[in-house]
Structure formats: structure tokens, C-alpha cells
Amino acid sequence: MKKLVIILVATTMLSGPVLAQSIGEKTGVNVTLGIAPKTQDFITEAANSDMLEIAAAKIAQQKGNADEKKFASQTITDHTRTSADIKQLIDNGAVKAELPKALNSTSQSKLEKLQNAGADEFAAIYDPMQVAAHEDAVSLFERYAKGGDNAKLKDWAGKTLPVLQHHLAMAQQIENTRRGATVGSAPSRETPAPYGAK
Prior knowledge:
Layout: H1 2-27, H2 39-63, H3 66-91, H4 105-116, H5 122-147, H6 151-182
Helix pairs in contact: 2-3, 2-4, 2-5, 3-6, 5-6
């Protein structure tokens, strides 16, 4: 019985990463943490991230507070640059990949939530979205910089990573400020008098 349990545990441990990689290959999503995405997957995810960040930042420039507008301006500048860098690497033949022509459906849905958000709810959607998006971007670029299969793109990912890490730190600061401002800001209610009191 012990041998059977050991064999099952060993088989599960060995097949887990293979299964996750197989799922990732079929869906285009790298589900195994720490494994570098293939070049086309990296390009697709990075370009989609750039498009979403630029579009979201344009909405933030209209609906956001002063910190969000400042962050949005920086985001537009930096993500426009990374988009241009990726296009140049592809155009000059250093990278063999295709750029996505439009946002994927998940990103489009996130953008629609921002577009439809009222002024009072915008920060509660935008701020945590930026933290999550930049956590994903940092992870993507770190993984490709460590183990990507295209040397020039790998080098570029490593050089671009500090910009994304800076964005993440800014987004986290904005989110922490928002959370701090909302703690204890619920409207006060009068305590009802005990039953029967006048």
C-alpha cells in the first residue's frame, strides 16, 4: 500500500508541470509559474497589455484624481514606447512574431468597466486593476528575461523590466492611498434607541 501511495505521489508531482504546460500550449496562456513564455505568447501578452494600459490611462485622464492622472500620463508615455520597441524588433526581423490587431476579450471587458464607471466608483475599479495588470506584466517580463528563446527580445525584456516595476510601485501606492482614505469613511448612523425608550 505504501509503495502504491509513493508511486501515485511521484506520478502526480512529475505530471503536474507537464499537464500545466500542455494546457498553456492549447490555450495560449502560460499557466506554469516560472516558465518563460514562447516568443509569440510573450509578444501577444505584452502588446495586449500595452494596448489596455494606454486605453485605460486615457480614461483615467478624464475620470481620475490627481495621482491617477499623473500615473496615467506616465503609463501612456512608457507603454507607447514599449509598443514602438516591440514593433521595431518585429519590423527589423530580430523577432519573428505577429502583433495582435485588437484587445483580447478579457481586456476589452476590463476597459468597458472603466468606461462605464461613474466618478464615485472609478478609483475602486482602476486602482486595483493597475496593481494586478502590472504584477502580471512584471511576472511576464521577468520570466522572458530569464528564459526567453530570442536573445534580442530577452535582452530588451530585461532592460524594460525596471520601468514596469516602477509602474507597479506607483500603482500600489495609489491603491494603498485609496484604501487608507476609505477606511472609516462610511457614513455614520445614529444608534437606535433601545426598544421602548423615548
